[in-house]
Known about the structure:
By secondary structure, the protein is α/β, with parallel strands linked by helices. 36% of the residues lie in helices and 17% in strands. The chain has helices spanning 6-37, 114-122, 125-130, 240-258, 275-319, 326-336; strands at 59-60, 69-70, 76-77, 82-85, 87-89, 94-95, 100-103, 145-147, 152-153, 158-160, 166-168, 173-174, 179-181, 184-185, 190-191, 196-197, 202-203, 208-209, 214-215, 220-221, 225-228, 233-237. An 8-stranded mixed sheet has the order 3-6-9-12-15-18-21-22. A hairpin with a 4-residue loop joins strand 21 and strand 22 (233-237). It is globular. 29% of the residues are buried.
Amino acid sequence: xxxxxxxxxxxxxxxxxxxxxxxxxxxxxxxxxxxxxxxxxxxxxxxxxxxxxxxxxxxxxxxxxxxxxxxxxxxxxxxxxxxxxxxxxxxxxxxxxxxxxxxxxxxxxxxxxxxxxxxxxxxxxxxxxxxxxxxxxxxxxxxxxxxxxxxxxxxxxxxxxxxxxxxxxxxxxxxxxxxxxxxxxxxxxxxxxxxxxxxxxxxxxxxxxxxxxxxxxxxxxxxxxxxxxxxxxxxxxxxxxxxxxxxxxxxxxxxxxxxxxxxxxxxxxxxxxxxxxxxxxxxxxxxxxxxxxxxxxxxxxxxxxxxxxxxxxxxxxxxxxxxxxxxxxxxxxxxxx
Length: 337
């Protein structure tokens, strides 16, 4: 693919200048407010800089390596995840906390049309290698990362496309800490926690790569099989209920992701105008909780009072034995026991 257009270059430079200027002005304002509201004398500790914004950019466009594109209907992209370069996320998919999707070794300059990207994606690995952008750094022979619909990339995963495209289909579950490097994962498969897919490997549809398994370079996992070990090998075929559960698990993660889609509205970046509403909500919940405790305490108190009266009555019956002589009290003691 050709290098980025002049318009893309100008937009990149202007956007960066505006963004960094805005951040500098914001920091100066926060520092000024802190200084105005705090009385300091000589010898006091320095001001505490309380930055009210999270400045982590989880989507990082690269001028010569492309820009992440996330579907408007995506389920959830965690604020501390990182998407770098030519990364495409389909509808209903989710990328969870601490995951890194890095496609920064491809010659896919920003500002090109969708048709040009489709043509570039269709090129073979050798064809892309022959079209490297040697005027830059000579490393642009990799591919992009393409994730389909309703797929979940769980916490701490690493997905790269250094040698070729990484393609992940629909309804795929990628367990915590898995590594996928220039590999292909077809629809409704499950990659277990800590598993590694080496460059050129392929996991066909409705397959299960067990936790910690290592799929070697250019190895194919056939459809409907369970692979385990290092190096990974086939253990057995999956049953039909097990294959059905693969799709069910991916659907459940879509629901889980939708429940966290507004997490940034309730975290450290909450807007000032929302603070009174959140405080009122906490007060209402606290009142309801306290009311329930009062009811429970009243019920417990009533039960305790009844028990106390019964025990006191029994105690008084036993203590009445003191009014009798030893010979007269003996039958009463036996009866009380």
